[in-house]
Amino acid sequence: MKQSIWSFSKFTLLGLFVAVILVYTFGGWGCQQVEPEKEMKPWVGKWTFVEFADSTGVKSPGIGVYHYYDNGTFASQIITSTERPNLTANPSTPEDYKAAFDGYRAGFGAYSVNEEEGSLTYEYTSNLRPHRVVGEPTKVYFEVKDDIMTLNYKESGFILTLRRESENTSNK
């Protein structure tokens, strides 16, 4: 019995169609698609607190962490004094509460960067400090050298020094 050329062609066309779909979907036979490299932003990552300097230049150690994500969000928590009151006294005094509150800073929100000026502008979503108005921009000057970043809060008169804990962190 004679086989029709059309049945062979249908089989060949179907196989060719499946092959094209597979190549298009998976990027080639056994080839892995390569994502373009993201630009490394030196401020992005997890930074641990090293020290705090006030407007008089007096430096003090503290503890804390800053996170800058590559999607333009940040979060920070720092204690600027290692001698923060314990508040376990019953009753604690208003002075104890004030000292505990004054030594703690925390906030989160969005940030933008002006690389030419060397500044970050924070837009707080929420924060512990009442002088940081939610939605009002706060400009901070920054400098990154190797694994050290300084944040200069010129309006408040203090400078923070941070050390990189990990490379770029993403939060998508």
What is the fold's blueprint, element by element?
Blueprint: H1 5-26, E1 45-53, E2 59-61, E3 63-68, E4 73-79, H2 94-102, E5 104-114, E6 119-127, E7 138-145, E8 148-153, E9 158-166
Antiparallel strand pairs: 1-2, 1-3, 1-9, 3-4, 4-5, 5-6, 6-7, 7-8, 8-9
List SSEs in N-to-C order. Answer: HEEEEHEEEEE
Mean pLDDT across the residues is 78
Note poorly predicted spans.
none
> Which second-level CATH architecture of the largest domain applies?
Beta Barrel
Notes on the structure:
The protein has 172 residues and is an alpha+beta fold. A hairpin with a 5-residue loop joins strand 1 and strand 2 (59-61). The protein has two helices and nine strands; from the N terminus they run H-E-E-E-E-H-E-E-E-E-E. The longest helix has 22 residues, at 5-26. The N and C termini lie far apart (63 Å). It is globular and about 55 Å long. It folds into two domains: 1-34; 45-166, Lipocalin (Beta Barrel), CATH 2.40.128.280. The protein has helices at 5-26, 94-102; strands at residues 45-53, 59-61, 63-68, 73-79, 104-114, 119-127, 138-145, 148-153, 158-166. It has an eight-stranded antiparallel β-barrel with strand order 1-3-4-5-6-7-8-9. 9% of the residues are buried.
